[in-house]
Automatic annotation (TrEMBL):
InterPro entries: RNA_pol_III_Rpc5 (IPR006886), RPC5_C (IPR045576). Residues 451-699 form the DNA-directed RNA polymerase III subunit RPC5 C-terminal domain. It holds the Pfam family RPC5_C. Residues 150-189 are annotated as: Disordered. Coiled coil: none annotated. GO terms for biological process: tRNA transcription by RNA polymerase III. This is DNA-directed RNA polymerase III subunit RPC5 C-terminal domain-containing protein. GO terms for cellular component: RNA polymerase III complex.
Length: 700
C-alpha cells in the first residue's frame, strides 16, 4: 500500500482501435536522408504499388536549376540511357536527368506489433500498420544504359560481317531430355532467385495519385486514423472492452486436451494387417515391388497362416522372374507403361528393356560390370545404377555381385518351375539379342542342347557344398562304374581318388581354397558327372585326349581378353578365366583342367609378352602376382606407342605423364597428339595420386 501511494495515477486516457485504414496504412522511411531534409516540398511525379509484394515506386523531380546540379553530367546520363531518340519510350524527355525513382524494400516482415497512434482530446486512437517500407534510390536507368551500349556494340559487330558468312555458319546443337521434376526440386526452384523474380514480375502495378501533406485530400484521409463511432458501443474496438475475467481468459486460455491423432504412414506403405486384407496376388505384387528380390522361403514367411503353398508359387510367377534360385520383380511392375525415368526421361519401355538385360546377365553370371551394361543398353549411368541397386551389391575392383546367395533348396524342390523360367529367359534373351545386337559367342552359353538352360553361378564355398552333396549321392554308383572300367582306363581310378578325398574332407574352406577345389573337381559335380571316356576328366594334372580343341578354345579366350584389356597380371587373368568358365554350359571342354602353366604358355603364344616390371623391394606381391603380360601387337595404329610405353615401364613400376610424353616425343617427334597419348594410357594404365601404373600393379 505504501508503494502504491508513492506512484499515484495522474491521468487515465481512453485508447481506441481504429480499423478504417488497417489494411492500407504504410510507414515510409528514408534511411539515406536526414530527418530535417524531408521530401514534402519535392514534386512527386508518379507513384505505383504492388499490394501483394508491398512494393512501391515513387518518381520525384530533380531541381535542375539548383547551383548544386551538374548540367553536363545530367545530359550525359540522359544520352547514355535514351540515346538520340526522342520517342515516348524515352526515360528523360528533356534530354537531361530531371527525375529519380525511389524503390521500396520491406523493413520488417511481420508488422503485427506496430501501429500508428494519434492523440486527440485526451484520447489515443491506434491504427495497425500494414507494412513498413524503406525508400531508396533506384538505379535501373543504369541497366537501361548498359543495354543500349550492348545493342550498339552488337550492331557494329554485325555490320562488319557479311550476310553470307552468317548464313553459312553452322552451330552444334545439343539435345537433352527434360527430367520430371521431383518435389524437392520444386521446393528448391520455388526458393531460387530467378523464380522469385519471375513471380514478382507477374503481379501488375497499381498506379496511385500522390497528395501533398497539406492537401485537402490528405487532411480528409487523416480523419480515418480516428475511431469513427465512439458513442455507439464503440463497435470498432470491442476487443478492448472486456471484463477483467474475460481479458485474463484471452491472455491465458484454458488448456484443451488434444485428441491423439493416429500416426499416418506414407501412402506407399502398408501394415501387415492392411496387406493381408488384399487379394493374394496383390499382396505378393506389393511385397515384390518393395523388396525387389526375395527367396521363396522368406516370401512364404510373410504370408498369413494357412496360405496355400501352391497358390503363392503360382502368383509369384506372374510378377517376378527366377534369377539364381531367387525371385526378382519384373521390370514392368517397377516401370508401368505411363512412367518415365526420373534421371533421363526415357520411356518405361526402354527402362524395362535395359533392366531385363541386367536380370538376364545375372541369370548367367554372378558378377556384372556397370560400364558394360551402360555400353550395351545405351542408358545413362544413373538409370543403370538404379537397376543394379535393386538386385546387386557393389564390390571394390570387382563389379556388382548378385544380392542373395544361390537358392539351391528351391531349385531342387521345383525343377518344373525352374524349367519353365528357363524357357521364359530363352525368349527374353532372343528378344534382347535382336534389340542390342549381342553376339552369341560373347553373351550366350555355348551348348549343343538348346533346351538346356544357362547355369546358375554360385559362390565358391557354396559350390563345394553342392559338390560334396552330389558326391555322397552318387559315390556308390561311381565306384561301380569305375571298377567296371578299371582295366580299360587308369584315369578312372585317379578320379575315384580325387572324389574320395573330397568326400572325406569336411572342414571349412576359404574362398580361394573353394575356387581351387571347384577347379580341381572340374566343375563336373556342379555341371553333371560324366562317366563316358569322351567326357571331360577331373582336374588332377591330366590333359584331355583332344588337346588341339582345348588349346584352340583357350587361345580364343586369351586373344579376346587381351584385345579388350591389353595389359593383365597373372592373377587378374586367372580371375577372368574363372568367370569365363562360370558362364560356360555343363560339360564344356575347358572344364577338363587348365593349369597355370598351360594358361601362361597360351598367353605367350598369342603374341603377348611378359613385362618384367621392377616392383619396389617392399612390395607384398608374390612372384606369381608380379607376372605382367601385355598384348604386343594388335594390328592398329597405336601398336608402336604401346610398345614404347611398355619399354618405359621396364625401368620402374610407376611413371609421371610428362615422362611418358617426353619419351614418346623423342621416339616419334611432334606427330603424337594428346588424344593418342590419352588413348594408350587409358588402354594400358591406371592413374593414382598423379602417377601412372600398368593395370593391376598399382597396389601390389
Amino acid at each position: 500500500m505504501e508503494n502504491e501511494d508513492d506512484d499515484p495515477i495522474i491521468q487515465e486516457v481512453d485508447v481506441f482501435l481504429a480499423k478504417s485504414l488497417a489494411e492500407k496504412l504504410y510507414l515510409f522511411q528514408y534511411p539515406i536522408r536526414p530527418s530535417l531534409m524531408t521530401y514534402d516540398g519535392v514534386p512527386h511525379l508518379s507513384a505505383r504499388i504492388k499490394p501483394k509484394q508491398q512494393k512501391v515506386e515513387i518518381e520525384m523531380a530533380i531541381n535542375t536549376v539548383s547551383p548544386n546540379y551538374c548540367r553536363s553530367k545530367g545530359e550525359q546520363i540522359a544520352l547514355n540511357v535514351d540515346g538520340t531518340s526522342t520517342d515516348e519510350t524515352s526515360t528523360y524527355s528533356t534530354k537531361m536527368m530531371d527525375k529519380q525513382t525511389f524503390s521500396s524494400i520491406q523493413a520488417a516482415s511481420n508488422t503485427s506489433r506496430y501501429a500508428a497512434a494519434v492523440y486527440r482530446k485526451g484520447e489515443i486512437h491506434v491504427t495497425p500498420l500494414q507494412g513498413i517500407l524503406q525508400m531508396r534510390p533506384s538505379f535501373t536507368y543504369l541497366d537501361k544504359a548498359d543495354t543500349k551500349y550492348r545493342e550498339r556494340e552488337a550492331a557494329n559487330e554485325g555490320g562488319d560481317s557479311s550476310q553470307d558468312e552468317v548464313e553459312d555458319e553452322v552451330k552444334q546443337v545439343t539435345v537433352r531430355f527434360s527430367r520430371p521434376e521431383s518435389e524437392q526440386a520444386k521446393q528448391r526452384r520455388a526458393q531460387s532467385y530467378e523464380f522469385l523474380q519471375k513471380k514478382q514480375a507477374e503481379e501488375t502495378w497499381v498506379y496511385l495519385h500522390y497528395s501533398n501533406v497539406k492537401d485537402s485530400r490528405s487532411e480528409h484521409e487523416r480523419q480515418y486514423l480516428l475511431c469513427q463511432d465512439q458513442r455507439v458501443g464503440m463497435t470498432d474496438s470491442t476487443e478492448l472492452m472486456k471484463s477483467p475475467r474475460e481479458y485474463l481468459t484471452m491472455l491465458m486460455p484454458p488448456a484443451v486436451e488434444e485428441e491423439k491423432q493416429k500416426v499416418v504412414a506414407p501412402s506407399n506403405v502398408l501394415s501387415m494387417a492392411q496387406l493381408r486384407t488384399l487379394q493374394l496376388a496383390d499382396q505378393i505384387k506389393i511385397i515384390l515391388k518393395n523388396v525387389k528380390v526375395i527367396p521363396f522361403a522368406n516370401l512364404m514367411g510373410l504370408m498369413a497362416a494357412g496360405t496355400e503353398y501352391i497358390n503363392v508359387l503360382r502368383c509369384v510367377q506372374q510378377v517376378a522372374m527366377l534369377v539364381q534360385g531367387n525371385w526378382v520383380v519384373k521390370s514392368d511392375v517397377i516401370y508401368p507403361k505411363e512412367s518415365s525415368s526420373p534421371h533421363s526421361g526415357v520411356s518405361a519401355e526402354v527402362l524395362c528393356r535395359g533392366r531385363d538385360f541386367v536380370m538376364w546377365r545375372f541369370s548367367l553370371d554372378r558378377w556384372v560390370v556397370r560400364k558394360e551394361i551402360a555400353t550395351v543398353t545405351k542408358l545413362c549411368q544413373e538409370d543403370v545404377k538404379e537397376f543394379l541397386d535393386h538386385i546387386a551389391i557393389p564390390r571394390i575392383n570387382q563389379g556388382w555381385e548378385f544380392m542373395l546367395p544361390y537358392d539351391e533348396d528351391f531349385v531342387k524342390k521345383h525343377p518344373d518351375v525352374v524349367q519353365r523360367q528357363n524357357m521364359l529367359w530363352q525368349g527374353i534373351q532372343s528378344k534382347l539379342q535382336k534389340v542390342f545386337n549381342i553376339p552369341k559367342e560373347d553373351w550366350m552359353p555355348k551348348s549343343a542342347d538348346t533346351s538346356t538352360a544357362a547355369p546358375m553361378v554360385v559362390p565358391g564355398v557354396q559350390l563345394v557344398n553342392i559338390a560334396k552333396a552330389k558326391v555322397k549321392d552318387n559315390l556308390h554308383q561311381l565306384e561301380w562304374d569305375l571298377k567296371k572300367k578299371k582295366e580299360q582306363s587308369k584315369k578312372a581310378s585317379s578320379t575315384l581318388t580325387v572324389l574320395a578325398d573330397v568326400h572325406i574332407k569336411e572342414e571349412p574352406v576359404s574362398d580361394d581354397e573353394a575356387m581351387d577345389t571347384c577347379e580341381g573337381l572340374n566343375n563336373g559335380l556342379f555341371n553333371g558327372i560324366h562317366t563316358d571316356d569322351s567326357s571331360c576328366e577331373p582336374m588332377n594334372g591330366l590333359i584331355p585326349r583332344d588337346g588341339t580343341l582345348v588349346a584352340k578354345e583357350l587361345k580364343e579366350f586369351v586373344a579376346a581378353t587381351f584385345n579388350k584389356q591389353y595389359v593383365l597380371t597373372m592373377r587378374e587373368l586367372k580371375r577372368l578365366f574363372n568367370l569365363h568358365l562360370a558362364s560356360l554350359p555343363p560339360g564344356h571342354i575347358l572344364f577338363s583342367g587348365i593349369s597355370d602353366k598351360m594358361l601362361q604358355d597360351t598367353v605367350l603364344s598369342t603374341g603377348c609378352k611378359q613385362i618384367k616390371v621392377p616392383f619396389p623391394p617392399q612390395s607384398t606381391a608374390t612372384p606369381e602376382e608380379q607376372k605382367v603380360f601385355a598384348m604386343w601387337t594388335c594390328g592398329d595404329s597405336h601398336d608402336k606407342l604401346r610398345q614404347v610405353l611398355f619399354d618405359l615401364f621396364l625401368s620402374g613400376h610407376r611413371m609421371r605423364r610428362n615422362m611418358i610424353q617426353t619419351r614418346l616425343n623423342q621416339e616419334f617427334g611432334d606427330s603424337v597428339s594428346k588424344q593418342q597419348v590419352d588413348k594408350v594410357l587409358k588402354d594400358c594404365c591406371v592413374c593414382y595420386g598423379g602417377m601412372w601404373y600398368l593395370k593391376g600393379t598399382a597396389h601390389s
